[in-house]
Write a structure and sequence with these properties.
Layout lengths: L5 E6 L2 H11 L3 E3 L4 H9 L10 E6 L5 E6 L13 E4 L2 H11 L2 E5 L4 E4 L5 E6 L5
Protein name: VOC family protein
InterPro entries: Glyas_Bleomycin-R_OHBP_Dase, Glyoxalase_6
Pfam family, one: Glyoxalase_6
């Protein structure tokens, strides 16, 4: 039986998109760079982590890891898969996420549709335990 391991986002700017999602999600952070990883990047001619073609965002506890990988093509169609987030206050969360770089694309009675700075769609719903 398979289990979910990682979610991978194709990006034009992996480091910036990884920082957005690390800030957007409670308990997630961009994985720290150790000496071995920095040496590996330098061996590829990459001198700045901002230019890293694959950036990992890890949860503090259980949950999938998020990988952000550089791709040459631009996003040009709607996502076939998207994350759903839960928040106690939809409007407050929309303000927080837009301050991080998200854009509100739609408002429905029970949820909001947003895009991250790369244009990837995601939804925000009321938390299951919210009134």
């Amino acid at each position: 039986m398979a289990r979910l391991g990682d979610l991978v986002f194709d990006c034009a700017r992996p480091a910036a998109t990884a920082r957005f999602w690390a800030a957007a999600l409670d308990g997630y952070a961009v994985a720290p760079y150790d000496d071995a990883e920095l040496a590996r990047l330098r061996s590829l001619g990459i001198t700045s982590t901002e230019d890293d073609p694959t950036v990992l965002v890890e949860p503090a506890g259980p949950g999938p890891r998020l990988w952000f990988q550089l791709v040459p093509e631009a996003k040009n169609v709607k996502n076939r898969v998207h994350p759903d987030l839960f928040a106690a206050d939809l409007q407050a969360e929309a303000r927080r996420l837009t301050a991080l770089g998200a854009t509100v694309r739609g408002s429905h009675p029970d949820h909001l549709v947003l895009t991250d700075p790369e244009g990837n769609e995601f939804c925000v719903f009321p938390a299951p335990d919210a009134p």
